[in-house]
Write the structure tokens for this entry.
Amino acid sequence: MASLAKSAAPAGYDHLFIKAGGTAATFLVEVDGVDIGRFSEVSGLQVEVEVEQYNEGGVNGFSHHLPGRMTWPNLVLKRGITYDDNLLNWFHQTTGDAFVTQGKVLRTTAAVTMISSSGKRLRSWNLTDAVPVRWSGPQFAATAEEQPTEELEVAHHGFEATSFR
């Protein structure tokens, strides 16, 4: 049987936050090496494996459960409005008129990196074939006291995790 571990964690590193000193402060998003920005919330970082059930003749005590297709939900990223245009530039390069002009989907490699409150990179998730599929901006009201935010939804074909030591 092949080993599951790529490399063992050094002693004392079994929990990322012990050595980093605190919790994640922000999540840096990069697309093909270009900094898209820092986000305060990331959701949808998960994978699900469909299970196929197989009933073997003569085995009545249980059904075999076999792993099937893997699916990944879209990632949803949230942050306060910034001056930077990289996020919307990426959105426009991969959708709308750009899609019609190119005649194909421009898929990219995106990385979501957890940054500690001290600025240290803790862990990164590299998304394969990422493409932005929804953006929503702030809702305006003269009486609103909360910070204006934007939200980006990204479809992808899976991810790999990387830790920084």
